[in-house]
Design goal:
The structure holds 2 protein chains of 2 kinds.
Chain A lengths: L4 E3 L2 E4 L5 E6 L6 E7 L6 E7 L2 E5 L6 E5 L5 E5 L8 E8 L6 E2 L3 E5 L1
Parallel strand pairs in A: 2-11
Antiparallel strand pairs in A: 1-3, 3-8, 4-5, 4-9, 5-6, 7-8, 9-10, 9-11
Chain B lengths: L3 E2 L4 E5 L4 E7 L6 E7 L6 E7 L4 E4 L2 E6 L4 E6 L8 E9 L7 E4 L3 E6 L1
Parallel strand pairs in B: 2-11
Antiparallel strand pairs in B: 1-3, 3-8, 4-5, 4-9, 6-7, 7-8, 9-10, 9-11
């Protein structure tokens, strides 16, 4: 059984650019949640996808968007990058509202 | 406004002793509480959870206590081992916003267990 994987591991972008982060959910899981963890903070909920539909959203602007595919993998897209978007982005998969399993994260640096 | 607070950024404990990590929350609507452990360069790993209808849950060396009147929970690790050294996050499950199961995390407490 494969766990949650995320790509890329690290990424450097400049202000104003766009970025796409990817997440492969654990086998059998149909729900993916995305979190942003800034330095020295706990993870903050961005949004959740359940069966390819957005199923809840945290306090993040519309330039944070996502997709879930039929195989339940997911993408997080961030447009018009700002310096404050520099963070560790975590993806977690689950079967519905059950226990969430986290991937290792993508470290995004915005210069 | 932080809804889940871990007021101790760090904790140092001797191997074999008890580690007590504390967490406070502000919203009485939270229905589920979880503890996660995080090693560097890894994602958070689920440790133990407790429903808001219980006051204690035990799993091996780990016990979580919930005091709803005080809006306080704690994680006890007995006995502490050097491998327990990690950042521990307290999280609450929010049953609103169109999504049950989105988690609200505290800032974490870095536990160091010294041999």
């Amino acid at each position: 059984e494969t766990g949650v994987t995320q790509s890329p591991t690290h990424l450097i972008k400049t202000r104003g650019q766009q970025v796409t982060l990817r997440c492969s959910s654990q086998s059998g899981h149909n729900t993916v949640s995305w979190y942003q963890q800034a330095l020295g903070q706990g993870p903050q909920f961005i949004f959740q996808y359940y069966r390819e539909e957005e199923n809840g959203r945290g306090n993040f602007p519309p330039r944070f968007s996502g997709l879930q595919f039929p195989n339940y993998s997911s993408e997080l897209n961030v447009n018009a990058l700002e310096l404050d978007d520099s963070a560790l982005y975590l993806c977690a998969s689950s079967l519905g509202h059950n226990q969430q399993y986290f991937g290792p994260g993508t470290r995004l640096t915005v210069l | 406004d932080q809804q889940v607070k871990q007021n101790s950024p760090s904790l140092s404990v001797q191997e074999g002793r008890i580690s007590i990590l504390n967490c406070d929350y502000t919203n009485s609507m939270f229905d589920y509480f979880l503890w996660y452990k995080k090693y560097p360069a890894e994602g958070p790993t689920f440790l133990i959870s407790i429903s808001s209808i219980k006051d204690k849950n035990e799993d091996g060396r780990f016990t979580v206590f919930l005091n709803k009147s005080a809006k306080h929970l704690s994680l006890h690790i007995v006995p502490s081992q050097p491998g327990d050294s990690a950042v521990y996050f307290c999280a609450a499950s929010a049953p609103w916003g169109g999504s049950q199961g989105n988690l609200i995390f505290g800032k974490g407490t870095k536990l160091s267990v010294k041999p």
